[in-house]
């Protein structure tokens, strides 16, 4: 039946396996990583579902996220309170959505949420400018930034409201050759 | 059956009452099923039990319940009446609900919900399914239904455990992830390809060893018993020399590694194992298995790749949204990636801003033609060089006083060509001035042509040799028969006893035929081994020594070695992948003549994995410009498929047309190699199968079959064209609908389920500034 572990009950593990793309071993490993971030905060025993949240700064110090320019947005998107404090459920959810076996459609939905900086359900020019500055670390001049954002909206916007709705985003990304292979963890 | 029931306070008078009705009726249904009497899990008409039953089902159940109440009696023995009173429609609807819940459970991980919501829904769905699945079984089929349900659950659990086990078995996952986080996903894709190759070769090795080598070793005649298994008298003094062994002569030549060792006895050992048949089948089966595996992987990759968009359709949008590699975990790589993204944006901006350069089209065309001519010349030159060297090596084979260089000239030249020509092509390609992605494709195509040309020239030269050997064989056959007669004549003369039968001639004294198959096998093995040596040496010198020099000499050198020339090496993905593909082609070609070659390849791939992983991490730096050829996974698989076909051809040709050697190998003595199949059909299979096969081989049957296949291909082709057309129509319709919406400029309240899910993910706080009030008259 596997190693005897006391972190989760068998039912919890089965439920996690149903709700995520992870195997049992991977879920236990994830819990280990989660605990590593804040050992004094996160208990070893999760059988009674303690309501513990690890703050944003600790999560973004993980090596997988440390170098990502969008790490704050990623963590905020998956947090329930919108501030980036992740419970273990949110933590597992985040990695499940980003993992290799999760489907393209799911990743597209979350990518849209991540890139929507002001959370108005559209990717508008303001969002794009913030994105571009994060991607190029401020190396482009303001005129260049404006030009790129205008061109991007012009290319992808289908309904003419000069911002990208989810349908526009999905249409554009579904044709991209590199989206899936570089967007997975 | 487990049932999860909450014992909680009733939520409201009416609801409770309704729920109680439901529970009452259902519990009575369950209680009156024979064999399940008595309260279980706290059933009972009077306890305040509520259960988490989703709303829409309640109505069905209440209807069922009311009908139930009217006709039920608490402890009746006649179960069939009560079950039938739940009408067919209700049962069908209930079954539908259960199926829906099951589908929800299976797809719940694909929904973009918060984890808590998922867990709640999962639990509800599971409770519902558990509870009502039992109630659905009716009449005689009930026990069988319950059993079926239990077996399905066990099967799902078993599948899950097996998947867990299987993922745990995949080797080198950590190592590859490490490389991925340092160098990005394109470098890691090489290692994933290497691992896949290793798996395939391991299976081929299993086939060859298990079905050919081990039976011969265990059940066949031992070394030294028959001529083909013994080192000839003339070679015996030197047979153990290291230099002879590294050339795969001496003891190596007369071992299981090569074709010539195997005996042609039809059945061997107690089990009557048919070795010649097995040898042929394994040879052909290896190709069949490789083909199946490559095509299956190609099909899987083709699913993943998205639709075809025009190259320039979404340039800026793609650069913004898809350029970051989420797998990067290393600061240096991340810095490189930032720089590369910035450069790429600047390039696109410049492209966008300025008009087309006034270029001299004629000059450009001339330069491109010139470049192609030069490359064709070098390709022709390398082909001729190889032919020349192979001819020379045939002459060398007759001499004995060879220097090390002369002995290994062929392999050295081939490996050197493989090393020198690609950079040469790259330099010539500078003349052409293509977009980098197109230039990369040209480069890959040219390297491919180079390797292919080399391989086939080598093969043709080899075949010349084979033909020579076949001619030689005839004269040697006569010579050996003559020698045998002489031996017996001498024996009777010397022994003075004409009645005794002479012992058979000592195996090492028998005159041997040239055994062209073993010679071909030896050539392939030598080529593979030298290829391995050259690859490893290149990494050692080109990467490791270079890194050591740059690191340590930097302290006392005039210019900055790390930033300028030569700096650290970058990992050459395409070169390495092509090398791997061609190596596999050689293995496929040579495995029929040298069964040990597959084993050598397995060892090579295994050591390659560790060696190259170490070399990449220790001596390489991440690429400055990350340039993946799009959809490159299927490109390399396509190459592999092409190489597979090309390596199949020579082997099939030799099996079908060339006669096997008369005194070595499992097919010796037969007119053609595939005669062994005919023999098996005649002798081993029942008579009717023989007649069946002879009917099947009738041209009158084969020609219609071929025609049928051609028709099927034509039909499938036209069907796929029809699908493509309807695809285009649908796309046009979608585009038109979007254009209409563009005119309307009204975007609120979509009924799309996805949009609703997105709403749920919002934390009820929008950070957008409020929209400005619409101006009058707009």
UniProtKB/TrEMBL annotation, chain A:
In terms of superkingdom, the source organism counts as: Eukaryota
Indicate what this protein is called per its UniProt record: Calcium and integrin-binding family member 2
Any single biological process term in GO: integrin-mediated signaling pathway
From the record, give the transmembrane residue ranges: none
Q: Which InterPro entries match?
A: CIBP (IPR051433), EF-hand-dom_pair (IPR011992), EF_Hand_1_Ca_BS (IPR018247), EF_hand_dom (IPR002048)
A Pfam family in this protein? EF-hand_7
**Swiss-Prot/TrEMBL keywords:** Calcium, Cell membrane, Cell projection, Cytoplasm, Integrin, Magnesium, Membrane, Metal-binding, Repeat
Q: SUPFAM superfamilies recorded for this chain? A: EF-hand
Q: Where is this protein chiefly located?
A: membrane
The answer to whether the entry has keyword Repeat is yes
Q: Which residues form the EF-hand domain?
A: 103-138, 144-179
Gene Ontology molecular function, alphabetical: calcium ion binding; magnesium ion binding
| Statement: the UniProt record of this protein carries the keyword Ligase | no
GO terms for CC?
Answer: cytoplasm; photoreceptor inner segment; photoreceptor outer segment; sarcolemma; stereocilium
Gene3D superfamilies attached to this UniProt entry: EF-hand
Q: Where in the cell is it found?
A: Cell membrane, Sarcolemma; Cell projection, Cilium, Photoreceptor outer segment; Cell projection, Stereocilium; Cytoplasm
Which N-terminal residues, if any, form the signal peptide?
none
TrEMBL record, chain B:
Instruction: List all Acidic residues biased stretches.
Output: 78-87
Q: How does it sit in the membrane?
A: Multi-pass membrane protein
Where is this protein found?
A: Membrane
Keywords, sorted A to Z: Membrane, Transmembrane, Transmembrane helix
UniProt feature, compositional bias: Pro residues: 769-778
Chain intervals with Basic and acidic residues compositional bias: 737-747
Write out the similarity annotation.
Belongs to the TMC family.
Q: Which residues form the TMC domain?
A: 515-630
User: What single Pfam family name could you report for this chain, choosing any that match?
Assistant: TMC
The UniProt annotation puts the region (Disordered) at 62-90, 737-778
Recorded protein name is Transmembrane channel-like protein
**Keyword check for Transmembrane:** yes
